Amino acid sequence: MIELPSAYFDLDRMLETGISKIIVGMNDLTSFVFATVRNSQWHDMESPIMLDMLRDMQDKARMKKIDFAVAGYLNASFIQKMNQMGIERILHYSSIPEIFDLEIDHPDHLKHIKEESKKLQRSTHDTARNVECIQEN
Q1: What does the CA dihedral 30, 34, 36, 40 come to, rounded to 10 degrees?
Q2: What residues does the PEP-utilising enzyme C-terminal domain cover (predicted)?
């Protein structure tokens, strides 16, 4: 995953390792390129700089026959540009209603599932720790 400018600049060397896919993490890469935070006026995925970087990476991936995609919290305008460039996209689930103008009956269901999974992991960890304590005594 390319999320840092240093990874972008080291891409040629990475391509020689036999990787089969490049995924560009647009939110982090944009933040680091512009030294800004998300939702800042300077965090611009559609800037000429970012689009040139994407074209460069896409061209290198094509030459090596490596799958190429971008991922992140993407908006409709950016997705349209990626369509024009022929770049695959991986969307964060929370972006889907806005991008496709959809209403979802339970928009936070995945968030709820994640929270419940974390609780279960913690309780499982606590149970294992309790068993260890009992066995020690």
Answers
A1: -80
A2: 1-89
Q: What is the pLDDT of residue 96?
A: 62
Can you tell me the distance from the alpha carbon of 68 to that of 58, in angstroms, rounded to the nearest whole number? 6
Q: How far apart are CA 116 and CA 86, in angstroms?
A: 38
CA gap 78, 76 in Å, rounded: 6
How far the first Cα of the chain sits from its last, in Å, is 47
**Considering the entire predicted model, what is its pTM?**
0.68
pLDDT at 16: 93
Tokens of 131: 């068993």
pLDDT value at position 32?
95
pLDDT means per 10 residues, the chain with 137 residues, are 95 94 92 88 92 97 93 86 87 63 64 73 64 62
CATH superfamily assigned to domain 5-103: Phosphoenolpyruvate-binding domains (3.20.20.60)
**In the chain, where are the structural domains located?**
5-103, 105-137
118 in Cβ contact with 101 (< 8 Å): no
Q: How many angstroms separate the CA atoms of 101 and 4, rounded?
A: 31
